């Protein structure tokens, strides 16, 4: 995950940083996708979204999928602007589902990926 996407990934180290992305008006782009699922489970719809994102990122310099941030389409630019943190319940289990699923989404399998969980407080089960 070199270049801009890796810099963003490295800097995503705290809940405060997620709030800053939203406050700065960050948008989804070539290396950043966000999704706010209503349930903390990697259902078929989320698997399809993840497959498209990971496949696209693997053909470029990489990218980041953030689960738990919603977006709103800007009326003039058409860009999806990050708007709100929506923490996922049982985030550790969701992360395990992602680890098990990504290698199954493409042929050849994508094996070089990283995940991280960001919580408001370390003791939280949501993140």
TrEMBL record:
- One Pfam family, please name it: SLFN_AlbA_2
Q: Which residues form the Schlafen AlbA-2 domain?
A: 28-118
Give the range the annotation lists for the signal sequence. none
Q: What is this protein called?
A: Schlafen AlbA-2 domain-containing protein
């Amino acid at each position: 995950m070199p270049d801009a996407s890796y810099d963003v990934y490295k800097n995503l180290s705290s809940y405060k940083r997620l709030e800053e992305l939203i406050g700065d008006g960050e948008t989804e782009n070539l290396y950043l996708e966000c999704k706010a699922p209503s349930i903390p489970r990697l259902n078929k719809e989320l698997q399809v979204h993840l497959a498209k994102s990971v496949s696209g990122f693997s053909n470029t310099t990489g990218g980041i999928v953030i689960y738990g941030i919603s977006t709103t389409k800007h009326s003039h630019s058409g860009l999806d602007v990050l708007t709100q943190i929506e923490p996922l319940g049982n985030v550790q289990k969701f992360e395990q589902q992602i680890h098990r699923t990504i290698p199954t989404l493409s042929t050849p399998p994508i094996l070089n990926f990283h995940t991280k969980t960001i919580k408001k407080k370390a003791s939280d089960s949501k993140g």
